[in-house]
Structures are given as C-alpha cells and as structure tokens.
Design a protein that fits this description.
170 residues, single chain, mainly alpha
Amino acid sequence: MRSLKLAAVAALCLAVSACSKDGGSSNEAPADAPTPAATAAPPPTDAGKAAILASLPAPYNTGDLSNGQSKFALCRSCHTITEGGPDLTGPNLYGVFGRKAGAKEGYSYSDAVKAAGFVWDAGQLDKWLADPRGFMPGTKMTFAGIKGEKDRIDLIAYLKVETGFKAPAK
C-alpha cells in the first residue's frame, strides 16, 4: 500500500512538472523571469556597511553596529529586516526609512499608525523607540521601549545599514 501511495505521489509530481504555460515540456523559467538572486540586493560587505555608517548624519555615523545588532534582538521576535522578509507580529522593516508610517503593503496596522501622517526617519524612529505607546497612543505595539539614548542611536544606525538605506547623493 505504501509503495502505491509513493507511486501516485511520484506520478503527480511528474505530471505537474511536465506542465508549462505554453503547453510544452520545459521546466525552465522564461528568460526574462527574475531569479531569486536577482530580486534581492546582495547584503553589504563589512566595508560596505562601514561606508553606509560613515555616510549617515551625526550622531548615527558614530553608531556601534554590534551594539545595535544586540539591541535589535529585542525587536526580532516581532520584526524582520531582510529584503522581502515576512511580516511577523510587526511589519518587516526593510526599506522603513523614507516610508510613510502605516503604508507597508500587506501589513495590518493599527488605526493610530495609519493616521500618523509622517515618513519614518531617524528622529521619528528615535521617539518611537524611546516610548512607543507614549509617542503614539493607540499603537498595538506592546514593546516598552529602549531608554538609553546611545542604545537607540546604535540601533537606528544598525537598522539604516541593514535595511537598504541609501544616503542622499551629495
């Protein structure tokens, strides 16, 4: 009986893999289809991260990326930061800088965040991280905040480096 089930699964897999949009038998993606590697930017090298950090305005250009990464551990249970990463309890933060608050496609924000009316920048994020519920009453974020100013600077610098931030051209 087990071998019959395995044979049926194998036959189904073959049938599905033999199908293509044009009725042919090719399993290859169209030549113009983006590959997974082509859709995501490669992660910055250590030198690239140092260059991004140096391009940030003060005080973020002095951020300690290692401490920022450590502080992000407090956020990791609710947020991802990789390009194309999933939303968890909170939205994916890749590309957050320069994005209108409450506007990430596909994430269900609280009414307070949807009505915020600002674009995320380092100053807004600093206020948010210091006291999320005090900064924006009605948010569904339960995080108590990060009280240390240097820890917030380091976290914001880390997020800028890791979430696709592009410094304005000079």
